[in-house]
Design brief:
This protein has 265 residues and is α+β, with helices and mostly antiparallel strands. Helix content is 36%, strand content 20%.
């Protein structure tokens, strides 16, 4: 007992210092707040002020001499192409990102025909691929839910994977097994035309029940592809409402792009 009391007395100053340090660093609200700020900081991608859409990015790329074959050019071009293409389907998106963004490229809301009076929160990952999209991308998308900003933490948030290639059957199976609401789209890199659109059962439960996705042939300006094949794009429909409306072009055809860009490419 004597030894124990002596040891306790000798340890008291040390414990006192430890408690003092803990109490000085205890105010968790102050330390917790930056965590929310770091999540919301995904809305402020460095360099965002230099461009805000595809035409402004193309102008910027020309001014700074950004090579069209660089990963920065290819990735940013595709992100803006996807942003514009999805705006035709009633999505309002902002290009976001930065350190710790969990691969989130676009963030915003969506008013699908199945729930016209409600806005669904969505985040988008964009992937430029040289081969068909595999199931590994679904695992990445599933992990991105943890990186959404504080305002995008509800169970009804839709995770959207947009790739430049068509999906494999294993990707479709992997997406259906996920409990989180997800969608997969194929958007052509050059034209911005949506060629495929699918979602899982969890997405139906948050508002996509009754929504249909089909191909519309001869959409846009009526031109046909080489060999006489008509152009086509995905349309969404529910209750007589169709997105995108007919007669408004397809993909990037409605954007007035700088003519200098065509020469640069």
């Amino acid at each position: 007992m004597v030894v124990t009391s002596v040891r306790s007395a000798s340890l008291f100053p040390v414990l006192k210092k430890i408690l003092a340090r803990c109490s000085s660093s205890h105010p968790q609200p102050a330390s917790a707040e930056p965590a929310h700020q770091s999540s919301d900081a995904v809305l402020n991608r460095p360099g965002q002020s230099n461009h805000h859409d595809l035409p402004s990015f193309l102008d910027y790329a020309l001014r700074v001499g950004l090579p069209t074959t660089s990963s920065t050019y290819v990735g940013t071009h595709f992100e803006y192409s996807v942003l514009h293409s999805l705006s035709r389907y009633a999505m309002t998106l902002t290009r976001v990102g930065g350190r710790g963004d969990h691969g989130i490229d676009l963030l915003g809301t969506w008013k699908p025909p199945s729930v016209p009076k409600q806005s669904l929160q969505v985040f988008v990952q964009c992937k430029v691929l040289g081969k068909r999209s595999g199931p590994g991308l679904i695992r990445e998308l599933e992990g991105a839910f943890a990186g959404t900003p504080a305002a995008w933490k509800s169970p009804s948030v839709l995770g959207c994977l947009v790739a430049s290639s068509l999906p494999t059957s294993s990707l479709r199976d992997a997406m259906q097994r996920c409990r989180a609401p997800m969608m997969f789209l194929t958007v052509e890199r050059e034209s911005g035309v949506v060629r495929a659109w699918m979602w899982n059962w969890a997405a139906k439960e948050v508002g996509l029940e009754g929504l249909g996705a089909t191909l519309r042939y001869g959409a846009g300006d009526g031109k046909s592809k080489g060999g006489g094949e008509q152009e086509s794009e995905i349309i969404l429909s529910c209750g007589g409402e169709v997105l995108p409306p007919s007669g408004r072009g397809m993909g990037l055809s409605a954007i007035q792009l700088p003519r200098r860009t065509e020469q640069a490419n």
